[in-house]
Amino acid sequence: MDTIQRKWDSKKDLQSYREKLDEEYVSGLPDYLVKYFDEQEQRFNDTEFFINRARERGRQMNTSTSEERAQYIQDERDKFWAEHTVRLTKKKRRLGSHLTPVYEEPIKAEERIKDEANLTVDDISLLVSISSNDLHLFAMRYFPHYLRKADSRLHLFIYKTLSREINRKARRKGFKIAIAAPRGNSKSSLVSIILPIWCICYNKKKFILLISETANSAEEFLEDVKRELQFNAALRRDFPHIVGPGPTWKRGEIITNNNIKMMSLGRGNQIRGRNFGSYRPDLLVFDDIEDSESVRSKTTREFIRHFWFNKDAMHVEGESGTTTDFLFIGTILGKDSLLNALLTPEEYPDWISYKFKAVEKFSTSDKWLEWEQLLKNRFDVDRMKTARRFFEENEEEMLKDTEVLWPEGDPYYDLMITKVSDLSGFSSEKMNDPLDPTKILVKEEDLHLENFNYDSRIKRFLKTASFVAAFDPSVGKKKDADFSVLVTGARDRKTGHIYITHINIRRRSVDEQIDDIIKEYINIRHKLIIFETNGFQIVIADNLRKKTREMGLHIPVKDVPNYSDKHMRIQSIVPLIKDGTIVFDSHKRQSNQQYALALEQLLTYSENASNDDFCDCLEMLIREFRTNRFKMLVKQASR
């Protein structure tokens, strides 16, 4: 058994053992071991790189300027990742549509054992040993029947985070982690089945509590745990002293053969005071404990959070020095939900929180608007097929730059169908950004839409109109920071109508923002551009002026600091939207993705909305029009 305790002394040592093990497998190393050895080799690469470069970097630092040092470090980083990045992919085959990857049916544990027929006892012992520190490796080795599709970024994050935290040595306190994850992302099988079994097999915990919305749903997960401990062939071979029915083996409660207790409870059940001999619960998994009805009811919300969770569940820990880990995972069903509160440091400062969205980056292609019209065509009985065919014909353009959390399990096309079918459900269940209809300021019926291309009166006015724009910059360093928005409009002094003619809303770098403003100005020739200059935003305005001077171009920019309450400012323009003073272009809404996105932000805006960039920018533009009109009326009255 010396092999079990062995650590790799060098990359060569690791590679040698990898080659040896590869020869012993019937059909070569399985994917999960390939991934493991790749990761171990990557660690050696990292170490070698930083050691070998240290002296050279030191010499560079002593003989160069600060700018040269910064550039050198960046070049070395780029070089390192170019040389050492390893792409790990799962083998797959495609059936039917090339747009929907279908993976080979996952192998069963019995097949895993057959595949390892030539491995020595020491080899198998080593694999068992290294799985104790790696939840991901454990899952792939013993539960291939649960991992039906390639891992998502959420899955990899959970594997890595829990492996690190639970294996952390000499912990004085347990962790408290809250994760908001999209619905339908296979999170429960990981945290409610595989995680507890990992802790049981390696004696990482003594008393595990699994809490779900109802006692019945939690019991179903525990039944799955029992089934695996009884019938999983790989577990039976590698952990014979643990598997099989233990001293207690009933619905809702088990004690395993290695003396670990696991219980399932429903939301609201008493937790405080439970013990297993001298042990208090040391791992609590809260898996989807909230439902829509409980979130809507103020009485139920207050009971769950303040009386049950705060006063009961959170006081399950034992004396000082004991470690109790709390893992809370679910989908945000409302702004007042417990999970949303756990994600707010002001509410629960001792919790570490993470939020994942099904769509990380949306398409900016206008083709999606055409696709939506085809999908909603009531006169086409085959509209689903028609829309799908249109998508396949324009797939490359429509999927360009899109990013989703789980491409294989929750593809972009399916998510867009959900979005156009039920925007509210999509926002909550897939984006963890729930909408409260009672708090939304502007509804669809409040909008005043005209086709600016076909209305002759509007066309005549816009031909000679003076255009004003408002710009809300984003100071994020990355392209995927907040939206930056440029809204252009014109006011008809005779009728008082304000026509919103152009909307440019994108996530982009600072340089791209400046370039887009210049392009828009050259195309439209604005009379004035209102520029929000709070904090560092003024730097963008200064850079715009500098660049246009170098181009010999004069763009009339007016700096406007916004320090008053944003929500109150946005509320002030709602009456002008509802009474028709502000008019939007119906044609652009149906043909321009950015225009449609801006109106979507307007129709989903409430005080706690995560995306309010367009609403904020629109208010700046309207404020300028109202201020100018007021000044004009004052001048007329003084004559």
TrEMBL record:
InterPro entries attached to this UniProt entry: P-loop_NTPase, Phage_terminase_lsu-like_C
| Name of the protein in its database record | Putative terminase
